[in-house]
Amino acid sequence: MCENNNEMVQSIRETTRTVLIVEDCANSAATIEMALLGIPQVSVKLAASVMEALRIMDTPNCGVQAIITDLNLPRMDGFELIRRIRGDQRTSAMPIIVISADTDPETPERVARMKVDAFFAKPFSPALVRRKLEQLLGATPP
Hints:
The protein is of the alpha/beta class and about 140 residues long. It has a single domain (about 15-135), classed as Rossmann fold. The protein has helices spanning about 1-15, 25-35, 50-60, 80-85, 105-115, 125-135; strands spanning about 15-20, 40-45, 65-70, 95-100, 120. It has a five-stranded parallel sheet, with helices on both faces. Strand 4 (about 95-100), helix 5 (about 105-115) and strand 5 form a beta-alpha-beta unit.
């Protein structure tokens, strides 16, 4: 009996995908988190800063498989987070979605050059963000 339970727990762990939301605005983070709650086998971790996100990602077996980040964050911006993720062989292919209120008209092209998988301007559609994440994680067809 215990072996079956252990196998079931291990199977759940193997199929659960963790998404890290890096957002300093609690309302935006909560909106994104609520949009993702219904995706099967997806769990969410929250970070209010790049430094907190990097600490989470440096934790052994953190399980983070995708990032949703703001660009305007305290002390270190989302561009630096993206640079670090793309510059690390372990995380270079990780899906990244940017949601930002950045009004610079160059920003969408700038993040595209950084190989970000999607860019959403604030205010954003939680349903569209969810759909894009599902596609990136292979939960729905593209």
